[in-house]
Amino acid sequence: MVKKNLSLNPVVLAAFICAACVYAFPLKIKASPAFCSLLNEQNIASISGEFSSNVVRSGSGKYYSAAIHAESVSDSAGTGSQAKGKVSVLLPAEFAEAFLPGKYFTKAKENSLVCEQGKRVRLYGRFAQKQEDSGDSSVFVVRYAESLPEKSGIVHSLLKIRGISRINFRRLMYSWGNAGGLLLALLSGIREYTEADVSDAFRLSGLSHVLALSGMHLSLFSGLFKKTGRFLGQKLSSLLQILAVLAFVWFAGISPSLFRAMLCSMMLLFLSLLNIKNVKMLSVLSVSFLAHIILRREDIVSLSFILSYGALAGILVLGNFCSMVNIARIPSLISSSLGASAGAQIFTAPVSLRCFSMFAPAGIISTVIISPLISIFIYSGLFFIFLCLIFPVFVPFSSFLLNIQYNVIKQLVLIFAAFPCISTAVQ
After folding, report:
1. How far apart are the C-alpha atoms of 54 and 103, rounded to whole Å?
2. CB burial class (10 A; 0-12, 13-18, 19+) of residue 398?
């Protein structure tokens, strides 16, 4: 079975050679496009531009990281220069959290920002060396910030709608307590409201991929329209699925794993529109890999990128073989799920051991049990979101039912997190 999966066609071979060359040698890859201006980087005291990514809270919670597309810069003497390219920035939490529900700084509006993609800002601070391993050599640490007038046009209007929607979505999820915090992470990638012990438990139980926006989340959204094929026709159904995928990615924001999932999903849906069947998923994954490193080369060094492609490659190469091991003793549905989970874990284990000094074998079993519960939880959440937008009076009732599901998932994840891990850390 493995031999059959490894019968390489040219595109698979090209992807394999490219990956081997990329990861056989240490790379220092700059963001695309690279930041440049007429001023010396160490003399820059302010940067003007617009957010090009979602803001993400740091581990300490004191800062939020983001990226902006620079438009201009200036030094402390007021000398200015035009600029272009992407800059990594660190924002103090009191700026980024000022408009977020339930945060300590919610009422401190002075010097605060609406930190959403497309928002134009002027940031004051200085460049400093990055502490974490990254392709960028430095990061702009912000000490003061101010908003700038927004640009006109359809694209910026859509980004404004997106920003407002994400803030209001946070508020609805906040009203649902801990269940809303998990649902917020699953639907938008925002993890600030997820319980810390639950986030750690997902990692220790080998379930980090569940919280990382990826193919599972896209398949749930596109699956909502897949069943309409029998009523609307296959082509219209595929078009609706494409729109659902694009809408989810637009709202959640592009991460390396989600971009990979989007590329694969879009290719499969377009092939379906063209009535092309018997498509080999390994070929689709290979084309996605090659396209990804061309369109977003900075993602190559991202762990999310490596783990996402590694996990799916493991499922496609080893999944069927692993499912055959105990096929006579285990029902085929469970055996298939266990095989896919084992294939993904085997391929990503070396990366986990190298980067995190640990590997959670429990993830092979926990994925099979938790993933279906997460799917039910997401579908329930989507239903209650729709219901509460029409009838706000159902918010408390929805919160009660979702928190029942959440507590079941939480307890199971905590149980799997207690299983022993393989560690390479020096004691």
Report:
1. 18
2. buried
End-to-end distance of the chain based on CA atoms, in angstroms?
A: 40
Best CA proximity match to 94, nearest among 81, 103, 83? 103
The string of pLDDT tens digits covering residues 276-320 is 878 889 999 999 999 999 998 888 888 889 989 998 998 888 877
**Burial code of 171-196, b = ≥16 C-beta within 10 A, e = fewer?**
ebbbbbebbbbbbbbbbbbbbbbbee
Residue type, 39: L
pTM of the model: 0.83
What distance in Å separates the CA atoms of residue 68 and residue 427, rounded to the nearest whole number?
40
Task: Enter the tokens of residue 323.
Answer: 């499912």
Whole-number Cα distances in Å, 97 to 27, 108, 163, 303, 355: 35, 9, 14, 26, 30
Rounded to 10 degrees, what is the CA torsion of 72, 74, 79, 81? -20
- Alpha-carbon span 6 to 15, nearest angstrom: 13
Distance CA 60, CA 170 (A): 21
Contacts 24+ apart (CB under 8 A), 324-328: 324/1
Q: How far apart are CA 70 and CA 82, in angstroms?
A: 8
Residue for token pair 């879009």: 266
Q: Are 116 and 65 in contact (CB under 8 A)?
A: no
Buried b vs exposed e over 109-146: b needs ≥16 C-beta within 10 Å? eeebbbbbbbbbbbbbbbbeeeeeebbbebbbebeebe
Which residue has tokens 């938008």? 188
As given in the structure block, the two tokens for residue 131 are: 């502490």
Low-confidence ranges of the chain (pLDDT < 70): 1-8, 26-32, 59-60, 103-113, 129-137, 227-230, 322-333, 425-427
User: Could you read off the pLDDT of 220-261 as tens digits, one per residue?
Assistant: 777 777 766 667 777 787 788 888 888 888 888 888 889 999
pLDDT of residue 216: 77
Compute the distance between CA of residue 375 and CA of residue 243 in angstroms, rounded to an integer: 20
SS3 call for 39:
coil
